[in-house]
Write a structure and sequence with these properties.
The chain has 357 residues and is α+β, with helices and mostly antiparallel strands. 33% of the residues lie in helices and 21% in strands. The chain has helices at 69-96, 127-137, 148-155, 179-184, 191-194, 209-216, 259-264, 290-299, 305-318, 331-352, and strands at residues 2-8, 16-19, 30-35, 38-44, 49-51, 63-66, 101-107, 113-119, 140-145, 225-228, 231-239, 244-249, 254-258. Strands 1, 2, 3, 4, 5 and 6 form a six-stranded antiparallel β-sheet that branches. Strands 10-11-12-13 form a four-stranded antiparallel β-sheet. It has a three-stranded mixed β-sheet with strand order 7-8-9, sandwiched between helices.
Length: 357
């Protein structure tokens, strides 16, 4: 029988199995283990479990010891050195104008190697950069290219929900997420709303996908024809969580039905109004246009005849009446007058001419 214990090397990191030997381990303990890259400090995820030799995984590494105060002090010193290594490497990348983004620098527990995590669109030639780093730190250098999801996991941050990212709190592995999950849940296919900080689809889309699929099986699909109460209807919308569908009847009216009502084939009975419910207000009549109102007031004054007369007198005092201009004579008369004047002028000219002898 072997005692197997699950360990993780960082918060929300992947779980690895180790041989617990005979050490009394509990969840949350810090231990020092032997890995392929050297010694490292890890955290116990769960208490050890016993497995038979033939069922245990192969090539198990051993847990060396529980972490001591010296081991914790060394881990704290390594974190300080990691920040300095990150700044120096970032400075070298900017000086060389390399097309890469540095994410994190990590020292091994014994300080024998420094691992630099970076992201890039393609392959990057970082041989000269490694020479500069090795000459400065006097230790082995490893450059590791990661994806955008791993970058978000190492960097951390807040999601659109306002909480810390799932990948850096409790998710140990990245499950595949597709647009079909968003469609099944009735979400808007807006990239800004269904994408996370890493630019990929939200990991939380997979949390309730199976529940939506199981609940959707009990509802008729959109576009399906159903018959109830000797009437035909067409399903036009679904409310999966409420387990209701909206149907359109043959007369064009719409109605919301539950699964039980569809199976029974009975029309829903409208609920009576509550005893203390407030009565609905009567609809207001549309306002009368201003011109019609003024005409009605002139015909039927509000304050009686005396007020209307006084109003007319005031208006007459304010605006004195002016005589109306006479209308212009018709065009025919003007033409006749002009012809008569022309005849008189020609007759006068003829009279003034002297007679020839």
């Amino acid at each position: 029988m072997l005692r197997i214990v699950s360990l993780k090397f960082r918060i929300a990191g992947k779980h690895y199995d180790f041989n617990a030997m005979e050490l009394p381990l509990e969840a949350g303990d810090q231990v020092v283990v032997e890995t392929d890259r050297g010694r490292a400090m890890a955290i116990v995820v769960a208490p050890p479990r016993e497995l038979e030799d033939n069922k245990s995984p192969q090539d198990l590494k051993d847990v060396l010891r529980l972490a001591t105060e010296e081991d914790r002090a060394l881990a704290t010193a390594n974190s300080t050195r990691e920040r300095e290594a990150f700044k120096f490497c970032q400075q070298r990348i900017q000086e060389r104008k390399m097309d890469m983004k540095l994410v994190r620098a990590e020292y091994l527990f014994d300080g024998s190697k420094v691992v630099f995590y970076f992201t890039a669109d393609g392959r990057v030639d970082f041989r000269d950069l490694v020479k500069d780093l090795a000459h400065y730190f006097h230790t082995r250098i490893e450059m590791r290219q990661i994806g955008v999801r791993d970058e978000a996991k190492l960097t951390g941050g807040l999601g659109i929900c306002g909480r810390e990212l799932c990948c850096c709190t409790f998710l140990t592995d990245f499950a595949p997420v597709s647009v079909k999950m968003a469609k099944e849940q009735g979400l808007a296919l807006n990239p800004n709303k269904i994408s996370g900080q890493c630019g990929r689809l939200l990991c939380c889309l997979a949390y309730e996908y199976e529940t939506y699929c199981s609940m959707k099986k009990a509802l008729p699909k959109c576009g399906r024809k159903i018959t109830f109460g000797n009437r035909e209807a067409e399903v036009i919308d679904q409310s999966i969580l409420a387990q209701k569908v909206t149907v359109r009847l043959d007369d064009g009216s719409r109605m919301q039905l539950t699964v039980a009502q569809i199976e029974s084939g009975e029309l829903p009975i409208p609920e009576p109004a509550a005893a203390g419910a407030r009565p609905s207000r009567p609809k207001r009549e549309p306002r009368e246009p201003r011109e019609q109102k003024e005409q009605r007031e002139t015909r039927e004054p509000r304050g009686g005849r005396g007020k209307s007369v006084a109003k007319e007198e005031r208006s007459s005092e304010r605006k004195p009446q002016q005589p109306k201009p006479e209308p212009p004579p018709p065009i025919a008369e003007i033409a006749a007058d002009s012809d008569q004047a022309a005849r008189k002028s020609t007759s006068r000219r003829r009279r003034r001419r002297p007679k020839r002898t």
